[in-house]
Design goal:
The structure holds 2 protein chains of 2 kinds.
Chain A (H helix, E strand, L loop, with lengths): L23 H30 L6 H4 L14 H25 L3 H31 L2 E4 L5 E4 L14 H10 L2 H11 L4 H8 L3 H10 L5 E2 L4 H32 L2 H5 L3 H26 L1
Parallel strand pairs in A: 1-3
Antiparallel strand pairs in A: 1-2
Chain B lengths: L21 H26 L6 H26 L7 H11 L1 H21 L8 H12 L1
The chains are: A mainly alpha, B mainly alpha.
Chain lengths: 293, 140
Amino acid sequence: MSTTAIPSGTKWWSGGKSPFNVNYGKVMMWYFLMSDAFTFGAFLISYGTIRFSVNNWADPNHVFNSFPFAGHANLPLAFVSLMTFILIFSSVTMVLAVHEGHHMNRKGVEKYMIMTIIGGAAFLGCQAWEWTHLLTGEHVALLTDGTLGVIPTTVKMNPWGADLSSVEMMNALQKSTHEQLVAIASTMHHGAAEVHHNLKALTNQELISQISASGLHATHSGPIAFGGYFFGITGFHGFHVFSGVIINIVMYLKTKLGHFDKRGHYEMIEKAGLYWHFVDLVWVFVFLCFYLV
Amino acid sequence: MSLAQTNPPEVTFQPDHSGGTGKIWKIFWVLSVLTIIELALGYFLYAKHGELGYATVLSTKCVIAILTLAKAYYIVSVFMHLGDEVRNLIMTIVVPLVLFVWFIIAFLADGNSWKNLRNTNAGSKPNQMEQVQEHHSTEK
């Protein structure tokens, strides 16, 4: 393959050649990604501003400590590390696809595009599990009206505040309704139907003594902004991953149909690759801001 | 198998793609090792939660942030091949990103200022959070 080394002192702006030495599509992909970097940057910095402005923020090691099929085991950082490595690896297979494209090796491009698509789908599956786990989780927390409730993590509420002292816990239990006390007591039995029925027959005082004897763990409500920022930013990133997977599927089909062989170059794979690597790049920062610090 | 790839007319100087995949795998290992170090530091903060001083926690978090910037550099420079582009293109991408330096400092300082206003009733009483910290330090 004939290549030309760029002579030193090349006058890029004197006309007759592209000063950037790349075609229009690739320059525009770069500028799109730069503007998208500002969008994500603004989101993450806004999150940082709110986090800096309150005294207690949710501790990521408490919020993200679960792993599929591991039950209630406390495994901070484990699942998100898996997601991170999936995305790094799919970035490697993407750059290998670009490499094969440079050598006009269609079979190689197809193989690595398939691997990249699988990596992207695996990441989305992990995110779906994580969101479901948070949105359906059951945690006992102090509500704004002074009662105790069983709440999940949503954009309106979350249970990720500081632990309640035993006095605060007793006060809140006294204020809680019969219905709330039954719901709290049944979380200790993992919501079995017949247990729920039996609990309903108990009086408030019987329920309270049962709950306080169990050493139940309850917390203050967490900062309300946590859910909105977490679901907003990881959702926006997940949407980028989703559209990246769609773009990669289109690129795979176009490779398979021989469109790039006819065109004489695989530059579309490079452009799709730029987008895919950007998605990985954003995740590196989401990983930092939401899970590590 | 290696056929010559034709280039679009904007490309005056054809880039050299004759290299192997060695560099790609090297960067994969660099990224993996950096991530493992980040995770180890994150786990250190978790395991020692409540035992470490403010300065230790802050500096550990700064180290994690710097390692993240290193990962970002390798992804952009090698995986996205920005390092192989001509200087003109690199500069139009990188220079605007300098805006982030102001962006991060200004907004995090603003958040911190809000926290001080919250804890002091807009300056009308001493900072409760600072008092709590001083109280702890005199006990030791």
